[in-house]
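#onboarding

Welcome to the new folks! Below is a worked example of what a typical request in this channel looks like: someone posts a single protein sequence, and someone else replies with the predicted structure as tokens. Don't worry about understanding the tokens yet, we'll cover that in week two.

Example request:
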Amino acid sequence: MSRTTVVEPSWLADKQAAEEEIIVLDVRFVPRDVDYGKRAYDKGHIPGALFVSFKHDLSVSPQQHGGNNPLPTVAQLAHTFGQLGITRNSTVVVYEDVIGPAAAKLWWVLRYLGVEKAYVLDGGINAWYEAGLLLTTEVPQIAETIFEPVIQKEWLVDVEEIRRVSTHKTEEADTALDQKDGNFSTQPTQSVRSVQLIDSRDIGQYSEGHIPNAEHYFWKDILDVQGRLLPTEQIKQHFAALDSADEFIVYCGSGVSAAVNILALKEAGCNRLKLYGGSWSDWVSYEGNTVVSGT
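Example response:
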């Protein structure tokens, strides 16, 4: 496996053929048709895959603040993952039809809760099918376990940190990143940390209004026409204008599609990545927050 965040269908098929223990999660999702994923799963899925409902398992009802797709509590997520037989030592592969926001967000949640060997299937189930690999309608039996999360606090930020960053693009830090050859490698130092906000929405949404100091990088632009992640060197070139930043905070409309950009940046070797969980829908829920329009 040459990549760090995504795996090829052939890699997964080989692991399954060797009877290695891989947990496969089907999280296909269409926002305007919340039952699509389960219908698609029942029609045919990758052998061994378990279905995860993005709407019911990975989000809760929105409140006044917190965005349109707030995460369940850590206890709720731990319960869900335990029911799926996941531990922090599990190897987990998640997929949609192609690489998409729901799969990337599930990958992010797994990593946020301490599952280090979590991956997204590059190209999703479409790539699996195009590779000539079989689907099944058989639902596997689940050996439930107790999932004990270890929260990676540095992966998530709230509105207070965004207020600071949107006003001041640098912060004092004990470490900074030394971007040598675009590898974003970490080097200890005492310095001022440069923090870059990334808006993952489409250009129309960004132009209508965005958080001050946010740069526009539409999440679909790091995928090819088949819904696969671009080659790593192309991802680095895509984000090359941001090489001077030490840290990236990524947001979108509600904290979902931003995870695709995080996936790509992680693949490019960036290790200081944070998600603004509530994203734009949280930002505009506060009257005093500044909104900038235009490009």
